[in-house]
Amino acid sequence: MDELDRRLINRLQRGLPLVRDPWRELADELDSSSLELRQRLRQLLENGTLTRFGPMFDIERLGGAFTLAALAVPEERFEAVAELLHDMPEVAHNYRREHAWNMWFVLGCATRQDLDEALRHIERQTGLVPLNLPKEETYHVGLYLPL
Question: What is the distance between the alpha carbons of residues 65 and 30, in angstroms, rounded to a whole number?
Answer without folding.
Answer: 38
